[in-house]
TrEMBL record:
Segment forming the signal sequence: none
Pfam family, one: BPL_LplA_LipB_2
InterPro entries, per database record: aa-tRNA-synth_II/BPL/LPL, BPL_LPL_catalytic
Lineage: Bacteria, Pseudomonadati, Pseudomonadota, Gammaproteobacteria, Pseudomonadales
Listed name of the protein: BPL/LPL catalytic domain-containing protein
Domain BPL/LPL catalytic: 7-187
Amino acid sequence: MIESPQFPPLLTGEVVARQTDPFDKAVSQAIAGVDSGTVFYSEAGDVLRAALVLAPETPLEEAIQAVYVAQIGLAESLGALAPPEVPVFFQWPNRIKVNGALCGSVRYAADVSDPRAHPTWLVIGIEVPFIPVHDEPGKNPDETCLLEEGCGDVQPMALLESWAKHTLLWLTYFMESGFERVHKEWRPRCDDLGKEINHPRPGLFVGLDEKGRMLLRQDVMTETVSLIEFAEHT
């Protein structure tokens, strides 16, 4: 029997049925008015799926920066539980990389899409594969799972507990001192920063601005790309 994960103060957990997507459940419950700080999660052993409901008090363009907080929380959790030689990086806007290959993602949704509008709710979810998605190892060399990266001792519920703890800590930093501290922690972990990229559009990924938007240089022009463009259900 799987032991129920322990959540830090201010967060509460709610398990969903195996066939239910915790992210979809979180969105439906957020619409219905569930309490902020509720974490919906699945106990499936092959992949960790969980989603946190937040009730932002700021416009969406600021609230959406919590996506970076969730990424930092996941990186710190894997750093605490995985072998020390396993590097964890980000690929903008929402992918997680372990040992240079994609190994999960962060999903997010809000009830508004206008950057200046105040969302009633914001849902941020994570998906991390523990065992191979495909039957043939190495079929997709750009994708991996924790088992293939020497993290076989990491358990989904332990990672969920750790993610909740680290994410809450960084949410506290974010609410107290704004995006600057989050940006400083996130930036060194971004794998495609300073590189020519093709997604979401071709260009040189220069960095993030003070609102957390991607700065993408194309020839002499620099445009901004917001995380809001990649939100779900908006």
